[in-house]
Amino acid sequence: MIAFSIVTTMLIACSSGEKVEVVKAASTSSTIQPAHSIQAQLPQHLPNNVTAICRDGSYSTATDDSACLGNGGVSTKISRYHSE
Question: Distance between CA 73 and CA 75 in Å, rounded?
């Protein structure tokens, strides 16, 4: 019953034909600065299919969340993009 009265009130308010004033948001100026990222130094030659360097220095070829499981976790994730 309450929902019906709310919908009825909204319909009456919207169909009254009165002009609606459009209000702009207050002008705020803010400076957006990009975050600084540190590029990881990767070894010159990585084995094929390596997806991560583990914290203990070993490599992982896992493509799911099991990368470096049991090797201290992922130190550096490696993304390779191939076009075929």
Answer: 6
Three-state secondary structure of 45-71? CCCCCCCEEECCCCEECCCCCCCCCCC
Structural domain containing residue 73:
49-83
Residue-wise pLDDT for 73-82, tens only, equals: 999 898 876 5
Whole-prediction pTM = 0.47
pLDDT at 31: 75
Please give the pLDDT value at position 26: 75
Mind listing the pLDDT tens digit for each residue in 19-42? 878 888 777 777 777 776 666 677
In a domain, 76, yes or no: yes
Query: In whole angstroms, what is the distance from residue 61 CA to residue 43 CA?
Result: 16
Backbone angles phi, psi at 8, to 5 degrees: -60, -45
Within-domain flag for 74 = yes
71 found inside a domain: yes
